[in-house]
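Schema walk-through. Below, the input block comes first and the output block second. Nothing else is stored per chain. Lengths vary across the set, and this one has 275 residues.
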Amino acid sequence: MEIESIHAAYFSPTHTTRRLVSHLAAALSGILKVECVENDFTLPARRIEAMQGRKGELWVVGLPVYAGRLPNLLLKYLDTWQGHGALALPIVSYGNRSYGNALLELHDLLLHHGFAPMGGAAFVCQHSFACALAAGRPNASDLAVAAGFAADIAGRVQNYLASGELPELHIKGQGAPDYGGYYQPLGEDGKPARFLKAKPETTDDCNACGRCATVCPMGSIDVEHPSQVTGVCIKCNACIHVCPQKAKIFTDEAYLSHVRFLTGHYMAPAAIELF
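--- output ---
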């Protein structure tokens, strides 16, 4: 068997995970001298059909960490994937607090669905709503680490193709069945901050351009009436980042208190971890 293609697959509402995964996949594509295919499953329309891998492919699969786990509203979709013997490189991005058990969870999910993991990594990316955390990351230094890691993974792939033996991985974390549960957000007073139902509000500056509706990964913003958030909100802040009028904001006090807690406790740069 030979590697015929690299697949960059990612969920990335604010594009940081996409940047990281695409960089890794492109580096692997260059080293192994094969084509690279992008598989962006951020929007609902891209999650209608399951991803299907096959032998001869290497999938770089990246997701952001939400409360120490994979995003729970994506688990049902991810459970439809089929690897069919494709190789895989699970990647998670976290906003400078902790990646919890998400990397182990993604590794196990891919393995369960017929992918063969070659390694794994947790990279630091700018926090989606506490934007002062890891601001500007992944930066040039992070991408250089990613390129070096790609070279290491390419070597593992070549060893696997020659020997048929998968690399022995020891990814940190608490495993199944619940992967340690979800992190409980805290407010600035250190007590639980409960804002699960919080949604962005829309100010009078909105000009109804509808850009927010086109980027919502849950399809929760009404295209005709973008001031209305009719479905679930996962706090990815894609709508806030894309709004040219700065008209989407959160006013929920528990949510804002958690942002202040994060910026008060997790400003020191966190580290990339490679496995």
